[in-house]
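Deliverable D5.2: sample structural annotation.
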Amino acid sequence: MLEAAPLGDGWILRHGPDPLPASVPGCVHTDLMTAGVIPDPFLGLGESEAAWVGRRDWTYERDLTSASAQEQTDLVFDGLDTVAEISLDGRLLGKVRNMHRSYRFDVTGLSGRLSVRFLSAYAEAEAVRGRLGERPAAYAEPYQYLRKMACSFGWDWGPTLVTAGIWRPVRLEHWSTARIARVRPLVTVDEGMGVVELAVDVERTRVEAPLAVEATVGGVRARTEIDGAGGVVRLRVPDVRLWWPRGYGEQPLYDVELRLLHGDAALDVWRRRIGFRTVELDRRPDAHGTGFTLVVNGERLFARGVNWIPDDVFPSRITRERYRERLEQASGAGVDLVRVWGGGIYESEDFYDACDELGLLVWQDFPFACAAYPEEQPLRGEVEAEARENVVRLMPHPSLVLWNGNNENLWGFRDWGWEPRLAGDSWGEGYYLGLLPRVVAELDPTRPYTAGSPWSGSWDRHPNDPAHGTHHSWEVWNRTDYADYRLSVPRFVAEFGWQAPPAYATLRRALPGEELAPDSPGMLHHQKADDGNGKLERGLARHFAVPKGDFDRWHYLTQVNQARAVAAGIEHWRSHWPVCAGTVVWQLNDCWPVTSWAAIDGDGREKPLYHELRRLYADRLLTLQPRDGRLVLAVVNQAAGGWTATLSLRRMSVGGEVLGQAPVEVTAGGRAVARVDIPRELTPAGPEEFLVADADGMRAVHFPVPDREVAYPTPEFDVSLAPDGITVTARTLVRDLLLQADRLDPGARADRGLVTLLPGEEVTIGVRGWKAPDAERARAALYCVEPIR
């Protein structure tokens, strides 16, 4: 039987005359931080003080003994970041140049000093650029010239911390006769029967040894003989329970065990969990253009998605528990699809395991983002090798439903001035339209592939044409008002978003001692977007009076504006289902404390946007939409059963007077949207009126003018303690009330975000982690929209 011995202990990092203890898995930056050589780059301006680290070569060492009674011993690295030479007792075992691959070296009978020397990623990238020529990119750093996590070179939300290290586990594997080299599982459903086909590759020390594989799934067992280096074992499992996305059904998972046999002796075992489901991508043309609708088990979905970036710029620090916490937060917000963005990594098994269990669909980008990528060697061979390895590695996971070739590179070629600059040089098209779809079709034909995001499906159309395929909506954030989301109905919105600062307690931790202001040194350093603060201020000014010299008010209003902006888009696009078949918010998470588009900040705290997503992505949603000169109420029902409700429509004054009202009966079928035209007499006009629609505990409000023009009364409300929280009772209209619980205690969390109360209404806000409840302290942590003074 194959024996595995972890090699996580005993490593040192060469740094000057005195080596430092090294953690494996880990990276140079975290080891240097532990040793006190560099400050925490997440705090203050510490990122700048660590910039030199990525320009240096680094060496990890430890003693290694490979002695074993087995016939062969392999040294296995699950991940090396990125360009390295591996030597044992002065003997070169190999050179590697890809963070996204694993590596295996035969060290049978060898012992001595194991050395892993990492060359500077900058030096390697610049050398490749020198050989292959300049390629354009959205950022100045040379990330497109090597197969490494692109965002470690910095992004418009991320720090520039160019890592190196043994970032995934390393071990010795001792084995005899044969071992399982690869298992490629094809899992399908055929009229209620689960079909599992396991293509097995083996490596041998004895060519003549007779081998067999035996597999079990769901109580079904099958066996086949191995001919040479591989074989296929097939199983048919009757009456399988289907795996469904969250909100559509349950997520049953089946254990698969495959044993490699020599006679009666088991030489090696491969174990995974699978789920039985079908997935299609409906891209048929129709009267509106070209669709992009995910279909799981025959059920057409409106995808309620978020974009995922690496949860830490040092990915080796992300634990199984942290993945689970973050993805449970996504599930708790009503999310059913997570897009793993192409400037990051293929995540660890822990990420996909959690998605399998939580019913979160995974859209997986291949790691290419915002740049022209050369297609010559040494990159082309690395791209194919990493694609082949990771496609097979991730195939068991039922949550994985889509392979995507790249992020924004097809769009960039057409729209960002790349084409003339390239002058015929390769830029990645051969990967996205040739190599990658060929690899997916060969290895994983059970899942759809799309060439990129955005992508209209053909060069005959603009790559980001909203009427065809996937669309990225960034003109709104960059140049206009979020009301402009309502000007188009894309078929699938794969990226859009709005910035806001992180939670107050996160800022206080990240910028210790700083007098916070939007343009204070630390705030500017932790704002990576081009003209980010300018866009925040211009976006705010269209709706509110921009507070000057009041950081707390600015902080609150920018967070309100983020939630309002994302709500404007999702409510509009959901109301146009099935023409629009999904929204994927940019972004769920952050990799450090930063002003960004995230719903959950770099310390894991939920912004108001997170709580707003819970409303926006609920199965049932009410939304008031200006449309063709009229006001329309859309009743969105994503549940399987129909929804019949009595709507209460009230036209009100900001002083609390009911100016007109009417009950309206409405029925929305399962997975459908019903629309109600608001009568003219109930349509609010001017700065002193608004409309309220209520049904089954849900509410939609519509103000006909921007907040800066609304004649808000001075908000008045009472605050009292409640079990595990506070109760707020409104004496006037209170718009977008928010309890910033982290101002009460850094560990405190509120169970809701923005809420609008009418006079006489009350809300109880749950608070956990608050050590000393006090009503007056709670009042000081409550914010709401106020009249312009």
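Annotation notes: The longest helix spans residues 551-574. Residues 244 and 764 are 34 Å apart (CA to CA).
The annotation will be released with the project's public dataset once the embargo ends.
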